Each structure stands twice: as C-alpha cells, then as structure tokens.
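Contributing new records

If you add data, match the layout below exactly. Sequence lines come first and carry their own label; structure lines follow with theirs. Keep one chain per record. Anything else will be rejected by the validation script.
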Amino acid sequence: MRQRRDHQHLETLLRRVAAGTGTDRQDALTALCRLVFPHAFAEEAVLWPLLRRVLSDGDEMTLRVEQEHQRINELFTELETFDPNDVEHHRLFEQIAVLLREDVRDEEDVLLPRLQEAVSPELLRRAGWAWWTVRVTAPTRAHPVVARRPPGNALAALPLSPIDRFRDRLDRAKQEPAVLSASTTAAVCDSRGGVKALPAALGQRG
C-alpha cells in the first residue's frame, strides 16, 4: 500500500534529521514535515472514518492514533521556535521520532491489517486512491488546533492547504536569486493564523 511506502521514506528522513546539523538538519526536517502532515491528514479524512464505520471497535482504535497525531502536531509547533542546533531542538525531535515510530507500528501492525480484513479488495483500492488524492492536496504543516476528525479537519483544509503550499513555495524561493519580500511572507503567516482557530470546534481532536 502507498501508506507503507510513506512509512519507509519516513524512517529515512528521521535518520537524516538525527544525523544532520545546521542547514542539512533543517532541510531534512522540512522534507519530513511535507511527508508527515499530508499523510496523517489523509488518514484522518479517509481511512480512519472508514475503519470506524466497518469495525465495532474502530473508534477506540483510531482514537489512539489521532492522539499521537495531535501530540506530534504540538511538538512540531514547539520545535519550530528553536534553532536546529539547539539542545532543546534535539530533545524535542527525539520525542517526535519516538511518537512517529509508534504511529507507524500502530498503523502497520493493527489498523491497516484490520482494515484489509474488514473490507473488500475493491473497497480497499478505492480507499487507497481517495487517501492519495487527499494526501497530495492536504496541509503540509503542523496545525495543533485543527480538529482531527471530519467535518472540522475537512473544513480547515479549504484555507490551510493553499496557504501552506504557498508558504512552501516562498520557502523554496528564498533559496533562489529572486527572493520574495519578507512582507509577503508575514502577510501569509498572519492569514494562516487567522484561519487555524475556526475549525477546532467542528470535529473531535482525539
């Protein structure tokens, strides 16, 4: 499944961040965020609602993973306030790495096998395509105040996805000769802050 390929790439990036310093560490961390947050958002929007529909214990099973996702969002938000070479940055990243590896184990050992057992191969394929469609358009940054379940997460994605992806383009532009103005970046950050709080009450956070 596509989820497992993401999990393999995740492990590679975790090792790159842990071994890196300075710009190299930050670049690997950025790549990690661009993988982790769309991946998790698509699970919360597509796969976990399906699990809750087809399994009597689906709510309990997905709640644990949603709580892990929530804590990861919170830690990443805190991590962004420290320099990559700071001791506290390393300490927080170690916590994130532990949680991400626990999340992968929960998904690969429990949730995904249970889902495969509970639904037909055709439904599983459709769910996989739906997951991928959401993944390639989902928010790419930590949003700890956004709901972990529909409809709150889906409503949040409407403004957050284009804002996150525009900020990603701004970040890439900073590495090129024609750097966009700092005022543009600040305006985008302000607008992002204004929309984050809206959907928090529209779904469960876990």
